[in-house]
Amino acid sequence: MEGEERLDAFERLTDERHADGEADPVVRWAVRGEMRSGTAGQASVWLHLQTWLDMPVACQRCLGAVTIPLEVDRWFRFVADEATAEAQDDESDEDVLALEPRPDLLALIEDELLMAIPLVPMHEECPQPLSSQGLSPSEGRDPPPEAVRPHPFAELSRLKKQG
Q1: pLDDT-derived band of residue 146, with 50, 70 and 90 as boundaries?
Q2: Per-residue pLDDT at 132 exceeds 70
Q3: Is CB count within 10 Å lower at the N or C end of the chain?
Q4: Is 36 exposed, middle or buried (0-12, 13-18, 19+ CB in 10 A)?
């Protein structure tokens, strides 16, 4: 199976979207199932998931919109239930999912795309020059004079010295 869904169909992904990004990003996906023989001669169900999205997120440097291409290509092995999946997941190299309760394909796609978003998305080169507002003096720039505030305990220290 394959298909396309508008980003709006994925609530948690939509929450990560930058407001100034592309108007209607589309999530493209394809899944394929197959039976593979296991180590004990029993067949197991496998799912191959591929999904793509050009995701508009906030650049962590300039806070403007940056479009990050997300691509997922993963295999999942299915087991009978949640308890079996939990028991085998730690000792298994592959991703293990439970057949019961039935997995939600769109939720699985959303989970994988959320995990594919970089922790610190940034432009290669930001389109706008960065302002020095909000930078500390330790970053090589002096703050504007109006941004310099007295230390909250400076007055207490002065009173202590007087008394």
Answers
A1: low
A2: no
A3: C
A4: exposed
